[in-house]
Design a protein that fits this description.
Blueprint (H helix, E strand, L loop, with lengths): L15 E5 L9 E6 L6 E4 L4 E4 L6 H29 L7 E4 L2 E4 L4 E2 L6 H11 L2 H8 L29 H11 L7 E2 L2 H10 L11 H16 L2 E2 L2 E2 H7 L1 H6 L10 H6 L1 E9 L5 E8 L2 E3 L21 H9 L2 E2 L6 E3 L4 E3 L1 E9 L3 E6 L2 E3 L4 E3 L11 E2 L16 E11 L7 E8 L2 E6 L2 E5 L1 H5 L3 E8 L10
Parallel strand pairs: 7-8, 13-18
Antiparallel strand pairs: 1-2, 2-3, 3-4, 5-6, 9-10, 11-12, 11-17, 14-17, 15-16, 18-26, 19-20, 21-22, 22-23, 22-26, 23-24, 24-25
Helix pairs in contact: 2-6, 4-5
């Protein structure tokens, strides 16, 4: 379906019956149910659990696509010129900035929504503003996966090809390189999204997904792929070349360390005590993020300015996570001394803090029949988040080594995990921006602190500066 000359028309949760050419023993046409995007070079068939070619034998649909792509590029070029013209006559609040006495235009690039992909866009924009993490990928050498007649065109990813022809790291690198270069108002992360479909089956289709779940899958798969070779060079060697990352990285998750664990990796100490005999059990758990409950006593306080009762703060959520807790009857601990399951207590300590502390607020929880959202406003600091009191050995930490400053916030707008909309706030070169798919606007700190955060990204402070602590 093509509407008003646009190349994309997605259908939320749509299953469109169509006949596709999938080779069988009799080489016959089979009618299956597919998730179809007419602008795409391939279509996903739910029944076959595979990608199929979305074209005729003569490549007629490809010619239509190329024509529509030219129209779309022309439309975006005109839109970009129009916006640049507006910038010439706009003020600070409309993307024209005064920097060192000279006027500069906003260079931020949005990400086009490919059909309920705001969950992915919000995470990508947040990660793109974590400088150490982003710069590592942007400095990686490019990998050319195709050559000859297929150069410059997307290949058809099918199950028979396996996963060797796709690279999440490469498409992630290309996406990061496209952001903040100022050459376009919006970038379409189609190639990255198709690789996500290929290697992360949970995210196939165009239904709304959970941004936190996507972030975890993305980081885990980047970590796994980075442990392999890159253009003949081991990525562990590339990581070792960055001494500041390699020296501080002692957190390994699922094998060798990578930039993912070097930046986001921390270590928890989990202490469990048997209430019958007093036996203590300790184990260390690596983590890439911390998922924090919003304490039940705050769940009815929805707005920052609502009167009555104390305000829920990020410190309340962190305290709830690390405080001593008695396990209920469904979580009885197997005591090795008593040789049976006993009542016990549990407590978390942070044994090692990461360079980037990612905090996920558990806003979605299951009831008897459905998944509800906790819409409570949680107050969080922009600067000076002090994590020292949650450390296992705080005396071994420097005065400023436990302070963190906020760099990005992911916000969920709406009532349910399967609906609503995701946007992100992120700091770039001392300015805050709001990323809403293709639209990027300047904002201020007062707007950021009022947001109902879902995922918070804090960066370890490097230089001394006076600030309030949490």
């Amino acid at each position: 379906r093509y509407v008003n000359g646009h190349a994309k028309k997605h259908y939320e949760d749509a299953q469109i019956p169509m006949t596709h050419h999938k080779k069988t023993e009799k080489q016959e046409k089979v009618q299956h149910t597919v998730c179809m995007d007419c602008s795409s070079y391939s279509t996903y068939c739910y029944r076959c659990d595979d990608f199929v070619v979305n074209d005729t034998k003569l490549g007629l649909v490809q010619k239509v696509r190329e024509h529509l792509q030219n129209l779309e590029n022309s439309a975006f070029t005109s839109d970009r010129h129009r916006k640049r013209k507006l910038l010439e006559n706009s003020s600070l609040n409309s993307k024209l900035l005064k920097v060192n006495g000279s006027t500069t235009a906003l260079c931020a690039t949005g990400l086009r929504n490919l059909g309920n992909t705001c969950f992915m866009n919000a995470i990508l924009q947040s990660l793109s503003n974590i400088q150490q993490f982003c710069c590592y990928f942007k400095e990686l050498p490019a990998v050319e996966l195709r050559n000859g007649k297929t150069a410059g065109r997307r290949t058809y990813h099918t199950r028979s090809q396996g996963d060797n022809n796709v690279s999440l790291v490469e498409e992630f690198r290309k996406t990061l390189c496209a952001l903040w270069q100022g050459s376009q108002t919006a970038f379409s992360p189609e190639s990255l999204f198709y690789v996500v479909w290929k290697i992360m089956p949970n995210f196939r289709g165009y239904q709304q997904q959970d941004a936190h779940e996507f972030m975890r899958y993305l980081l885990d798969h980047l970590h796994l792929e980075l442990q392999g070779g890159f253009n003949g060079v081991s990525r562990s060697v590339i990581l070792q070349e960055n001494s500041s990352l390699a020296a501080s990285n002692k957190c390994c998750i699922n094998g060798a360390s990578t930039v993912v664990t070097a930046i986001f990796g921390g270590i928890l100490q989990n202490e469990v005590n048997c209430l019958i005999c007093g036996t203590e059990s300790r184990k260390f758990d690596p983590f890439l993020d911390l998922s924090l409950d919003i304490p039940s006593q705050f769940r009815n306080k929805r707005t920052k300015n609502q009167e009555g009762g104390p305000m829920c703060t990020l410190r309340d959520c962190l305290r709830s996570f690390t405080d001593l807790e008695e396990l209920d009857e469904t979580e009885l601990y197997m005591c090795h001394k008593c040789k049976k399951k006993q009542k016990s207590t549990k407590k978390f300590w942070i044994q090692k803090l990461p360079k980037v502390l990612c905090l996920h607020l558990k806003r979605f929880h299951w009831t008897a029949y459905l998944r509800n959202k906790v819409d409570t406003y949680v107050e969080f600091p922009l600067r000076g988040l002090d994590m020292k009191c949650y450390l296992l050995e705080p005396e071994n930490s420097g005065p400023e080594s436990c302070l963190y400053d906020l760099v990005a916030v992911v916000v969920h707008h709406g009532s349910g995990v399967g609906s609503g909309h995701y946007t992100a706030y992120a700091a770039h070169e001392g300015r805050w921006f709001h990323f809403n798919d293709s639209t990027v606007t300047l904002t201020d700190e007062e707007t950021v602190v009022k947001a109902k955060a879902y995922i918070l990204f804090y960066v370890e402070r490097q230089a001394k500066s006076g600030s309030d602590k949490l």
